[in-house]
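Standup notes
- HV: blocked on the assembly model, inputs below
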Amino acid sequence: MIKIKKSAVLAGILGFTLALSGCGGGGGGTTDTPAAQPTDAPASTPKDEGNGGTTAEKPGLRMIMQYGLFDPKTEYAAKYIQERTGFNVEYELLPAENADEKLNLLVTGKNNYDIVKLNAMQFYNLASAGALESIDELLESHGNYIKQSIKQESFGSATIDGKIFGIPETGAGASIGEALVVRQDWMDELGLATPTNTDELYNVLKTIKEKKNVIPLTVSNKAPAIYGNIAATFGVFTDWKEVDGKLVHRAELPEMKEYLTFMNKLYKEGLLDTETPINTAQKSIEKFSGGKAAMYELPWWSAGTTIEALTKNSPEAKTSIIPYLKGKDGKAAIGVKTNTTWYVAILKSSKNKEAAMDFLNAKLEPETFKGIALGKEGVHHEVKDGKYYPILPIFNDELNNASSFLTGVDEEKYPIYWQARVRKDPVLQAHFEAFQKNAEGIIVVDPMSTAPPIEAVSKNLLKLTTMLDDNVLQFISGAKPIDAYDQFLAQWRAEGGADMVNAANEWFQSTK
Amino acid sequence: MDHKKALEGTNTTRGVIQTSFSEKCFSVFNYAFFIVMGLTTLLPFMNLIAKSLSSEGAVISGQVGLLPVGVQFETYKYVLQDSMFLNSLKVSIFLTVVGTACSLFLTTLTAYPLSKYRLRGRKGLLLIFVFTMLFSGGLIPTYLLMQNLNLVNTFPVLFLPAMVNVYNMLIIKNYFEGLPDELEESAKLDGAGNIRILVSVIVPLSLPVMATIGLFFAVAFWNDYFAAMIYITDPAIKPMQLYLKELLVSSSGDFLKDNVDAAINATPQSIQASSILLATIPILLVYPFLQKYFVKGVLVGSVKG
Amino acid sequence: MKPTIEPSPAPHREIKPKRGYWGRLGTDIWKEWDLYLLLVPGILFILLFKYTPMYGITIAFKDFNIFTGFADSPWVGWKHFEKLFTSPDFAQVFKNTVIISFLKIVILFPLPIMIALMLNELRNMVFKRTVQTVIYLPHFLSWVIVGGLFIDLLSTNGGIVNKLLVSLGMEQIAFFLDNSVFRGVLITSAGWKETGWSTIVYLAAFTMIDPMLYEAAKIDGAGRWKQLWHITLPGIAPIIVLMFILRLGNVLEAGTEQILVMYNPVVYQVSDVIGTYVYRQGLGNQDYSFSTAVGLFEAVISFTLVIIGNSMSRKYLQRGIW
């Protein structure tokens, strides 16, 4: 018995070995000829049933999307888009991490993708590598809805050397993300008035520190939180600022030093969270909602959960939003970027460029676009006092990921449609609206917002931004003395900062 | 007969020895040490469990320590109803079973000849294997290779390239080298060939190392997300660690600041905690099950018998 | 069997004179074709999956552009290596890498061996198995979680360790923001996470030790210490040597994943290692050539160390990987 079993095992193993080696050998033979590789066939056979009236046969398209935690096949938006446009599109999502590498692999590997949705850096990289099709003519001939929806100046952000390489998706328009929020119950208890400038802020924080023994102000360790409203009072807004007709990066502003000196003072005196360099947003929220911190630079999208957790913990807690603080000149101002968030491009390797443009165009047909953004009226959303409100929970269930499917937006209407997403939660909505109201009339738009991709900027921006942010934390926490700022600035310039600023100014002068 | 003696009897052949005072002290210290060490490693898991069972508000504001605050089971209900989670769990289990079986088989097969000093070119071959532990062609050529082999976006790509693991192979080889030569020689006298010896003599005597390397492979396949991240786009064959990774990364502050829509929909921390636990517990169960193979004196009977 | 660190007997030499190497190889393969056959699939796998893509290393000497391809990207010689070695931070980064790695080897390499030996001395099987299962748990937590955990524990704002320090009348320590203790945090957390897991391979090695040796030692009146020193430790020496040589191969990998999660700008000075530095330098510009060059630099050093370690081990301990 045992013998038979053993020899059977033996034979089996031998067989498997041979099979494995055979397979391996076969594979090895083909690898030297990458050119002769087989290609994955694109999903052909479009299903035209129930389409929006088109009769011509439409090719299947393949699109690479940004990251999302969903299965595109089962999404409502995907089905809706297919129904409305008649195109059968196969979607692939980039991973949340290493997205750029995977994107490169997907685009260079001969996978027959047609459309890609890219962030600014990916767009620049692919366009400058020659992987994207210039779409001027296609837009002219097949892009009537696209041209209706998107402003000419937005197209500027997708133009390289006079050619348009993608459809810019500007998103929800200019909106302010953060504001200082304070424990009003403690302010009342201590008889403190809402601060209106940094001197008053300093006094408020000092009193809180003395009387309540909590962290007076907590901020998280990433931009924009490490600059925020306080930096704005010194005149440090977003990355770029126009000074005397020239573009200056915030690293170079003399105001930056003043800001850092002030923050360092707060840090040294324990008025700013001493754990700022290791505070994630999550940690800061934990401190604020746990009653350990009195003031926090709160992003409105976290307001719902944060305030709810706070009031659950300490039911007596009340918060209020501090109106944007005034600077030395007695005026408040707050910076905002209105950069193009996404670019939708057609790959040079695509075999269905016209169809791809037809598809993108059809998605911006006004009714179709509204359907993607908001679903159906009465089912997914309702209109109250001229505002769009989501109908829950179906809006969440079916349209949570719909923004991922957008490929360009109607720049007039989308900022209005989009606000339905903010109205899912009344606390969140209240904060969003209050932030915007406080910012009315004092917004400073980043002058580089409409800039096209520029080589020296695109290549260096992320590295240099990280370098600056790291150093800002070092100066605030006193790990480096303020005196060393110029030394840092010299290094920043040497590592590409100078090139970047020059290139930015070249573009800036050309727009005048 | 006290239970201590009974336990000793089953697993070691050490009898009663006269224990000196210093040895008793050591013994007390030893138990105390492991109780403390065990607690430090266990408590974070208690914290995760507590978080997964607490209300989101309590988790966000840092109120949850070792016991849940505002107990709820909704998070588990939510995760267990999530079809993407369940599907990725299936993929992971299948991958771990198939991948471990194939890898253990192939790695053992490779380790055996390399453990024989009489094998010609042994040193050179070992050098060739070790070289690949340190040098690699990089991501792009490897991806192109997989594409040429038509493996991109297929299930086998998740385990085929990992099947010969040099690190594990060296451990098995090391163990084989420690086995007495008499085993092989007596089997040869019975007329057995090398393959037969490996299958029916060597492997049964190497269960502890087989269990160890099996565990290493299983854990590696279970925990791997990188291969899937690079080679897989089809949600139907995404393993769980990739799902988990994306869940965590997509809810982290860094990711959200660029993507307001994702920020509004960020996954609550309590759901993150329960996903982590549900993704970890299956693989944790493997080791206790394998411990029975870590038996001492497995060789004794065979050499004498 | 004998737990010995002597080498297995030298290959039995066939006295067949006047045959070249290939001839002898042929004879051996003819005689033991099955032994050589076993090697075939493993070698094919490694050739296919590891050596076929090896041409990718050439991009360390090129200005690689993924859209231009491997063949057409221009050669640039040592440019990327020069960029690495001449960058102003390289000296500091290299120093940090070596110090952290050295500390990790000195402290964290022996630790699992000690723990395994201590586990081996536990007599209560239920307790032993429970402990074994519990102490390997942290291996399954990702660094993001472990990092967050240590930040909580060591916080100056209600962290348990600082509470303890204060109650003992000491000053609080900002562990994550203090250049003098941060490396200690890195090593402690790495030890906490991986020590339990690393004992497994030694626990498996214990099973090879012949229990008769302990019997004999007891008859000779050897106590536990002597048994441990003269039987157990020599019994697992081969695996210790193997693990050590393999560890040398990781010497320039000081724990990039861990450090990326745990460090912050305030402690860059003591914790910025090659991996983290290259990560920050590479942000936004996909410089495959530069990262390949850095990888090659690390690999060459590691490979040299492994070869030196192996030959030292062969010379002094009479055994090695090959």
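- HV (later): unblocked. The longest helix of chain C spans residues 288-317. The mean pLDDT of chain C is 89.
- Next: hand off to the docking folks.
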